[in-house]
Specification:
mainly alpha; three-stranded antiparallel β-sheet; 9 helices; globular
Length: 231
Amino acid sequence: MEPEAAAKPRGPAVHGSTPDAVREALRRAISAGELAPGFQLRQDELAERFGTSRIPVREALRQLEAEGFVTFQPNRGAIVSDLSIDEVVELLEIRIALECHALRLAIPAMGEIDLDEATKILRSYDEEPEPEKWGAFNWRFHKTLYAPCNRPRLLAMIEANYGHVGRFTRTLVSRATGKEHPQREHYRLLELCRDGEVKKAVRLLREHIVQTQKTLMSAQRHALRDADAES
């Protein structure tokens, strides 16, 4: 996965930013693909961008390093981390464990407001023509399903893990699969949640993520084959 040109984090500077605020903004930008793997994160530029000193920026970068979003390299400082295909596959395995557990806890606590919100997200997803934006709808849908579990630390782990996975699978998997099949599974998953079918819903979620694994590995094989053919 080669470094690409990337813009600075979007949005206005936040004066007096804390390390947590800077970290969240940078994590969102990295997860959304606005800051590509290999992009150099210069502390002075980030401090200016967020309207703060370098101290909160330095602390935010160290926190992101602990989360795996940032790597510190000699003579370059902080850069956006890259991941191998094997590491992404492993993160998808972690995603299965975390998200299936969250859904198992969430379904008994779901109310009509939760289910209606998830339905609205899927309908907006249906109407979105650009594959680059499908990943955001996918995350919003899954996040809405897990929120009723009321486990803040579990939900934070899920979001961080999804951020790692999403920046490498978002466009590749979306273009390879389209959205018709994933959306059918999403609507079926929502129906099972509405009916309180915990075991069936968890089983479908597991299969849904496993299919993402398979699609990712297949797409990677084809990409490598095409690269070899061009060389």
